[in-house]
Specification:
Elements (H helix, E strand, L loop, with lengths): L1 H12 L6 H22 L2 H4 L1 H26 L4 H13 L3 H14 L4 H13 L3 H14 L4 H13 L3 H14 L3 H13 L3 H6 L1
Length: 202
Amino acid sequence: VNIKIIELGSTVRNISTGDADFKADYIKYVLEQTFYSYITSENEAYSSFEVNFARWTKAFYEKMLALYNNQLAAQPDDASVLLKCGNLYLDQKNYEQAIDCYDRVIALDTMLLKAYVGKGHAHRRLKHFEEALQSYQAALTLDPHYTDALRGEGQVYAHMRNYEQAIEKYNRVIEIAPDAAAYMDKANAYRHLKNYEDALNA
């Protein structure tokens, strides 16, 4: 059981939306489904946890997307709801739809940094590296200390195998707000450079 809870925690950390209520509702929904499945199917539930977990996650996201679309039907220019839709699409790997939502957000509110970063993430995962860099840099123009954008730049450079530039970006993140993920990214960049000593000390 503990292993399954750890898997759930890992998934929650990777959810793109920063909305605490969304994450709390997601945890509640999946735990309810897990324990209901356990009660009705005994130990069999845990043997198929991965399959069920993916299904429950998909169902929850569809439920939330329907809710957000209903809200947008009433208020089509609600940038905060459009941002949530973009994050949902990003998490579900619907990157083109995510980009469309983020573009609509930016058209409504040019100061929403999370929209630029979300758009950057979507482009990066589509391997549109130049477009991803442009999105991250747009966020950094508004806030040069925005660590999500700096780390995103680093990840793009790493994908492009420009590990030295990636390390520069990760170092900048660490200077502003020390973050375990940035340290891990930095170590991986050093590892790709076969600089194992610095990788261990990152």
